[in-house]
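for ur thesis appendix - GreA/GreB family elongation factor. copy paste whatever u need, i formatted it the way the template wanted (i think)
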Amino acid sequence: MSTEPEPISPEARRALEQDLAELRAERAKVAATLRDVDSAGDRADQADELQRATDVARLDDRIKALDLRLRQAAVAGPPPTDVVGVGSTVTVRFDDESTETVQIGEVAEELDRTLVTADSPLGHALLGHHPGDTVGYETPEGHATATVVAIAAG
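the 3d part is after this line
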């Protein structure tokens, strides 16, 4: 993938915003349990406090990453509709003549059967292609091809 800001679909934006809200709520909950470092306590209390501080730092890192991704997506604008890119919704026809509409994303969501990550074999093969283009990619069963039928923004 390029180093340029990549667009995301409206659905992906909503999912990231929801994740961000949940992370901020979790961070606030964990941070509220932190005590003053000078408070008395045994080693178990100190270890517990250290673990909570580590959890807050981990949450802060994830919050920063999601904030950055959302800002980058705003700069990138909407997903393209003339060429397959991250955030595109693509209808593809496979070798067996079946068609499927998939969304090209960055991170696979559990139970989201329509999302294809940009670094997966099919997602990577589709990037940069136009309707009518046929792409080849590797599957566990061997080489396969798919034809880009249509592209939508999301």
